[in-house]
Specification:
Blueprint lengths: L7 E3 L2 E5 L6 E3 L2 E3 L9 H14 L3 E3 L8 H9 L8 E6 L14 H15 L4 E6 L8 H13 L3 E7 L3 H14 L4 E5 L13 H8 L2 E2 L25 H4 L9 H16 L4 H10 L8 E2 L4 H8 L8 H10 L23
Parallel strand pairs: 4-5, 4-11, 5-6, 6-7, 7-8, 8-9, 9-10
Antiparallel strand pairs: 1-2, 2-3
Helix pairs in contact: 1-2, 3-4, 8-9, 8-11
C-alpha cells in the first residue's frame, strides 16, 4: 500500500511532508539572511554547498536580504543543482524609496518577482512568500497576483510570513471562494523565548495542513549564547546596532538563555543545539530556518538532525518559558501582535 508520508532521509537529514503539497523537505531549512552581507559571497557559497551535500534541500531567502545580495549569492550557489533544491523567497518590504516599491499590490508583486528570478538565476520560485501582512488592503488583490504567477509557471506554491492566524484563514477562504491557489505555509517567529504561536497559529496550521517554518529559532543569537547576562554587549552585534533587537534581547531573555544552557550542558549538548532541537520537535513544525553566518554555525545545526527531544527535557524547558507564553518579543516587527510579554 502506498504510504503518503514515507520515512525519507538523505545522509543524516530526515525529510518531512511540506504541508498539503506532496513535496518533502529537509527537517532543517537553510536561511540565507547573512549571505552576501556579514558572510561574504564566496564563503556563503561554500556554506550552501556544505548544506546541500549534507542533505538540506530547502533554502529560504528574501529580496530585501542585504539589498538583494543574498538572492544573488543563492543564485550562484544553485548552479547545477537548481532542480534538487526547494527554493523560497519573499516580497513585501521596501526595495527602494518610491511608494510602489513595497507592499503587496499586484504592481509591486509582479515586478518584485521578476527581479528575484533574475537575481536567483532561475525561471521559477518554489515557494513565494508574503514577508508581512499589509493592513487595510484587500487580500484578494494580492492572491490574484500570486495566482497569476503560478499560472505563468514562475511560482510553484505560495505562503505567508508572520501573519496572524485569522488573516491566513481569511486568505484560504478567499482562495476557495474565487478558485485561486491557496497558501500552503506560514513562517512565524518561534523559539524558547516567544511561544505565542502555540495559542492560535499552530492549531490553525494543523487544522488547515499548513507547513510551519519558524524563523529565529535561536532567538537572534541569545539562544546561541551570544549575549550572556551581566556581560557587555558584543560590539557590532545585532543588539548593539539594531533598535528592534533591544525589545527581543532583554536581560530577562539573556537570563533565560543561561538557564537553557545549564540544561543543555546536563544533557550533553550545547545551548544552540538544544534550542534548535526543541523548536524542530514541537507539534506542527515542518522545518526551522537556521541562518548560519559561518561553517561552524551550520555544523552546530546539523548536529541536531535526526535527533528527538525526550519528555523530561521538554518539561524542564517548559518551566523556563511556559507553553503559549513569551519572555521576549519576537513579534515586534509583525505590526499586529499586542499580547503582553511576561516580565
Amino acid at each position: 500500500m502506498f504510504n503518503p508520508t514515507p520515512d525519507l532521509r538523505y545522509n543524516d537529514i530526515p525529510y518531512r511532508p511540506f504541508g498539503r503539497t506532496g513535496v518533502h523537505v529537509s527537517e532543517l531549512c537553510l536561511g540565507t539572511m547573512n549571505f552576501g552581507g556579514k558572510t561574504p559571497e564566496a564563503e556563503s557559497i561554500q556554506i550552501m554547498q556544505a548544506a546541500f551535500d549534507a542533505g538540506i534541500n530547502f533554502w529560504d531567502t528574501a529580496n530585501v536580504y542585504n539589498d538583494g545580495e543574498s538572492e544573488k549569492a543563492v543564485g550562484k550557489a544553485l548552479a547545477g543543482k537548481r532542480d534538487e533544491v526547494f527554493l523560497a523567497t519573499k516580497v513585501f518590504f521596501p526595495v527602494g524609496e518610491q511608494p510602489n516599491q513595497r507592499g503587496l499590490s499586484r504592481y509591486h508583486i509582479m515586478k518584485a518577482c521578476e527581479e528575484s528570478l533574475r537575481r536567483l538565476q532561475t525561471d521559477h520560485i518554489d515557494l513565494y512568500q508574503l514577508h508581512r501582512p499589509m493592513q487595510g488592503f484587500p487580500q484578494d488583490e494580492t492572491l490574484r497576483a500570486l495566482d497569476d504567477l503560478i499560472t505563468q509557471g514562475k511560482v510553484r506554491y505560495i505562503g505567508v510570513s508572520t501573519f496572524p492566524a485569522w488573516k491566513t484563514v481569511e486568505g484560504i477562504h478567499l482562495s476557495e471562494k474565487f478558485g485561486l491557489n491557496r497558501y500552503v505555509s506560514e513562517q512565524p517567529p518561534y523559539n524558547l523565548l516567544d511561544r505565542r504561536i502555540e495559542n492560535e497559529l499552530v492549531p490553525m496550521a494543523l487544522e488547515y495542513n499548513l507547513a510551519i517554518l519558524p524563523w529565529s529559532p535561536l532567538g537572534g543569537g541569545v539562544l546561541a549564547g551570544r549575549y550572556p547576562p551581566h556581560e557587555a554587549v558584543p560590539e557590532g552585534s545585532r543588539l548593539d546596532q539594531t533598535v528592534f533587537y533591544k525589545e527581543r534581547i532583554t536581560m530577562l531573555a539573556r537570563e533565560a538563555a543561561a538557564r537553557v544552557g545549564e540544561i543543555a550542558e546536563e544533557a550533553g549538548m550545547t545551548l544552540p543545539e538544544l534550542a534548535l532541537l526543541w523548536v524542530k520537535e514541537q507539534p506542527g513544525i515542518t522545518a526551522p530556518i537556521v541562518g548560519p553566518r559561518t561553517m561552524n554555525h551550520l555544523q552546530s545545526a546539523l548536529n541536531v538532525a535526526g535527533k528527538s527531544l525526550d519528555d523530561e527535557l521538554a518539561a524542564k524547558l517548559d518551566e523556563i518559558c511556559p507553553p503559549g507564553s513569551a519572555i521576549a518579543d519576537f513579534h515586534n516587527t509583525s505590526m499586529w501582535m499586542k499580547q503582553k510579554v511576561l516580565v
